[in-house]
Structure formats: structure tokens, C-alpha cells
């Protein structure tokens, strides 16, 4: 499609055809902010190797993760429990900006560090019981551009887009009930990507 404004995205247009809402805002941070947050988060976040229990075996992933929030939430993910750390000033600034842009509120953030295209995230939905039902999840990307896909659980229909550095994506309404999402691995990307998913937990 030909567009006069190829860098602008209609953040009111739902990318999903049914059963949920996904809005892509494109780049919402300036190039300077994007560079600043990328290196700040890369260097200062308390990154941990993710651990998952898969068929009873403890697996350590190459991708690194961190969890920050308002309170010391205990968060169970892949059957491992983690306690949220207190916000850094930069994470709070990002959270405020995203809350203003989306008119949503978030109380925690799961961060992912993908060192290169070999690392990704398999099909899943973010629908743990502790998450607010049908609450919005805001996904912010800094660093390498990566493809991101949704797959409808019943029909198998797939919707894909590219997540740019400095961009914001929102998943809300029944999205997590009806759609899986993933970050496919790729042989073509050699640079790291930092991803932040702001979420709302109920205690
Ligand atoms: O890295 C991404 O863009 C997605 C991460 C994700 O789906 C998650 O943390 O649940
Ligand atoms: Fe997810």
C-alpha cells in the first residue's frame, strides 16, 4: 500500500480481524530517547537468565529477563516464582509516557533481552490468573527490529508485523484468550533487542 507518511501508523486501527484488539503506535520515542533507554536498560537492568520447568526439567534460556513493579509481587511464570524489583527512574519515566499515550495504568513490567536473532519467544498467551482479566499489555521495543506474530487459537489465522526500535504495541480486550503471540527466531539479526511488557496484576 502506498502511503504519504510511511513512518506513521494509525494507532486506532485494530490489527486483529476479530476476538481481540492489537494497536501498533509505531515509534513513540525520539531517536535520542531510544538510544538513551536502550543503553540504560541494557546496562542497568538486573538481567537474569530465564528458567523454565519443561516436562519436569529445569531449562535455562539464553534470553534474559527481569521483573519490576509497584510492589513485591510474586509472579509465577513457567512454574517458577519471581519477586518484582522496585522501579528504576527510567522505567518509571517510560511507564508514565506509555500510560499517557494509552490511557491505561500498569503496575508491573516484564523485561526481555534478546542478544540476537537466535533468541526469540515461542507461541504463548499472557493469561496467568494473577493478570487483570482482559487488561491491556503494553509492549515497548528498543534495539534490533524484530518480526512479531499473532495466531488465532481456533482458526490458526496469523497476523504479523515488525516491531521497530522505540515503538509501542498494545494488546487488550480478549486478545490473550483467543490469540497466541510469538517472537520468531531469525538467522538475519545479529544485534540485541530489549523489550518491555507493562502489565497489570491484581493482588
Ligand atoms: O519480545 C516481545 O516482543 C514479546 C515478549 C512477550 O511476549 C512476553 O514477554 O510475554
Ligand atoms: Fe507475551
Task: Describe this protein with a few key phrases.
single chain; alpha+beta; 8-stranded mixed beta sheet; 4-stranded antiparallel beta sheet; 14 strands; binds 2-oxoglutaric acid; binds fe (ii) ion; oxidoreductase activity, acting on paired donors, with incorporation or reduction of molecular oxygen
In a nutshell, what does this entry contain?
With 203 residues, the protein is α+β, with helices and mostly antiparallel strands. It contains three helices and 14 strands. The chain has helices spanning 31-44, 89-102, 175-178, and strands spanning 21-27, 48-54, 57-69, 74-77, 80-83, 85-86, 108-114, 121-124, 137-143, 146-152, 158-163, 167-172, 179-183, 193-199.
Task: Summarize the structure in words.
Strands 1, 2, 3, 6, 7, 9, 12 and 14 form an eight-stranded mixed beta sheet that branches. Strands 8-13-10-11 form a four-stranded antiparallel beta sheet. The mean pLDDT is 91. It is built from three helices and 14 strands. A hairpin with a 2-residue loop joins strand 4 (74-77) and strand 5. The longest helix is centred in the N-terminal third of the chain and has 14 residues, at 31-44. It has 203 residues and is an alpha+beta fold. It binds 2-oxoglutaric acid and fe (ii) ion. 2-oxoglutaric acid is lined by residues 110, 112, 121, 126, 139, 148, 163, 181, 183, 195, 197.
Amino acid at each position: 500500500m502506498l502511503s504519504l507518511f510511511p513512518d506513521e501508523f494509525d494507532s486506532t486501527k485494530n490489527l486483529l480481524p476479530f476476538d481481540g484488539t492489537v494497536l501498533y503506535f509505531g515509534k513513540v520515542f525520539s531517536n535520542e530517547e531510544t538510544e538513551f533507554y536502550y543503553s540504560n536498560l541494557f546496562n542497568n537492568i538486573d538481567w537474569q537468565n530465564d528458567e523454565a520447568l519443561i516436562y519436569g526439567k529445569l531449562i535455562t534460556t539464553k534470553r534474559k529477563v527481569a521483573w519490576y513493579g509497584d510492589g513485591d509481587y510474586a509472579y509465577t511464570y513457567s512454574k517458577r516464582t519471581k519477586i518484582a524489583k522496585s522501579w528504576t527512574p527510567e522505567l518509571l519515566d517510560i511507564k508514565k509516557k506509555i500510560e499517557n499515550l494509552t490511557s491505561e495504568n500498569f503496575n508491573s513490567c516484564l523485561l526481555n533481552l534478546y542478544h540476537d536473532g537466535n533468541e526469540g519467544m515461542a507461541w504463548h498467551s499472557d493469561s496467568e490468573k494473577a493478570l487483570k482479566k482482559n487488561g491491556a499489555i503494553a509492549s515497548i521495543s528498543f534495539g534490533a527490529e524484530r518480526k512479531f506474530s499473532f495466531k488465532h487459537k481456533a482458526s490458526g489465522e496469523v497476523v504479523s508485523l515488525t516491531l521497530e526500535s522505540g515503538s509501542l504495541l498494545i494488546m487488550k480486550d480478549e486478545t490473550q484468550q483467543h490469540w497466541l503471540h510469538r517472537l520468531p527466531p531469525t538467522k538475519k539479526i545479529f544485534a540485541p533487542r530489549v523489550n518491555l511488557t507493562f502489565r497489570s496484576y491484581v493482588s
